[in-house]
Design a protein that fits this description.
The complex is a heterodimer of chains A (about 280) and B (about 90).
Chain A lengths: L22 H16 L6 E5 L7 H4 L3 E4 L5 H11 L4 E7 H7 L1 H10 L3 E7 L34 H8 L3 E6 L5 H11 L4 E6 L3 H5 L7 H11 E3 H5 L10 E8 L5 H24 L1
Parallel strand pairs in A: 1-2, 1-3, 3-4, 4-6, 5-6, 7-8
Antiparallel strand pairs in A: 5-8
Chain B lengths: L1 H4 L4 E6 L9 H4 L6 E3 L5 E3 L10 H5 L5 E5 L16
Antiparallel strand pairs in B: 1-4, 2-3
The chains are: A alpha/beta (about 280), B alpha+beta (about 90).
Chain lengths: ~280, ~90
């Protein structure tokens, strides 16, 4: 194994359970690279994950990690951040975990603007349970539960989180592997809710059913169907159907929940002191 | 001419067979075609001279099984016992 990253992994857990060519490993390596570049302290960082293939990544990282119930990773992370605002809380979650069963938690964490970093491994299928369709499955693709093609429209998680009020929203893919550390680093250093959507490949359950049998074929599909944000602005909506727009969508400043809460506590303490002073007189 | 085009060169490409799952991503997307396959589908260094140390294979490897040592690096080359024989 590459010795540059050995410190950050639990080597007794290796190799990972992920299939050959799974995109989760690429996103995880990108996260480690981003964490190394961000200069944050590992002792001050908590990794929270839910259930799914992608959420296994918490088990492989030599950090303080917590592996929670399905869809509730962001809720647990909110609790950790509210009680210990000095910690850096990172949520590593999958698309089924954060957009389907945990969809409401995602929206409301973005609305509250709590300082979490959410990295979504978006492989557009439920890989751990043999490839059922998820909310982000592209229209027309064949999965275990849509054998004649998926009829519904996929979720655009970046637009959802942007509308809910997140302060940092970006999307990248595993083909654009050099972009992953850059975006996750920005997300880690951002004070406020930050969301990075990483399109990943699932060659075993998504690829094989959609005539992309090898991991390289799936990555070629990701390459061909991803569009830069600037190019996307010149394209019409029908041209953009089935494409992933990649880039940084939001990077703004907003009052953050835990900082505002600390301010409120201090203000009330001051008020209480003043009240006590009045009571003495 | 070739020397001026490829200023950065790799001293060694280490492939850790114990970690590698032979997915073929590094071979398919190598811009300089420096990697090839062996009979089991695992990557092998086909041509070290063409490698420009762009690190794309390292970034895209899901299992951290590949490592590039640049000419400027002072890292030691692969440890002897780390590569499991298959």
């Amino acid at each position: 194994m590459n010795r540059m990253y050995e410190d950050y992994y639990r080597m007794d857990r290796m190799p990972t359970i992920w299939c050959p060519g799974c995109g989760n490993g690429i996103v995880l390596n990108g996260f480690i690279e981003a964490f190394k570049n961000s200069g944050l302290d590992r002792k001050n960082t908590v990794i929270v994950s839910g259930i799914g293939c992608s959420s296994r990544s918490a088990l492989y990282l030599d950090f303080d990690t917590i592996h929670t119930t399905h869809g509730r990773a962001i809720s647990f992370a909110t609790g950790i951040k509210q009680s210990r605002p000095e910690l850096n809380v990172v949520v590593l979650t999958g698309d089924g975990d954060c957009s389907a069963i945990g969809g409401n938690h995602l929206i409301h964490a973005a609305r509250r603007n709590i300082d979490l970093t959410v990295v979504c491994y978006n492989n557009s299928t439920y890989g751990m349970t043999n490839g059922q369709y998820s909310p982000t499955t592209p229209t027309g693709s064949i999965t275990a539960t849509s054998m004649y093609g998926f009829m519904e429209s996929p979720f655009d998680l970046c637009k959802l989180v942007e509308a809910a009020g997140a302060t940092y929203v970006a999307r990248t893919t595993t083909f654009h592997a050099k972009m992953i550390p850059m975006m996750i680093k920005n997300a880690l250093l951002k004070k406020g809710f930050s969301f990075v959507d990483c399109i990943a490949q699932c060659p075993t359950y998504f690829g094989r059913k959609n005539k992309m049998s090898t991991p390289a074929d799936m990555m070629k599909w990701i390459r061909d169907s991803s569009v830069n944000k600037k190019t996307a602005e010149t394209m019409s909506e029908s041209e953009l159907a089935g494409k992933f727009v990649i880039g940084e969508f939001v990077n703004k400043e907003k009052p953050e929940l835990t900082a505002e809460y600390t301010k409120l506590v201090e203000r009330l303490k001051l008020k209480e002191k003043e009240g006590a002073a009045y009571a003495k007189v | 001419m070739a020397e001026t085009l490829h200023k950065r060169k790799a001293k060694a490409i280490n492939i850790y067979r114990k970690a590698c799952k032979a997915c073929g991503i590094c071979i398919a997307f190598c811009p300089s075609k420096s990697l090839g396959t062996d009979e089991l589908g695992y990557p092998v260094v086909a041509n070290l001279d063409t490698c420009t140390a762009c690190n794309l294979c390292v970034d895209r490897c899901p299992d951290l099984a590949i490592e590039i040592i640049k000419e400027t690096d002072n890292k030691p080359e692969k440890k002897g016992d780390e590569d499991g024989k298959k």
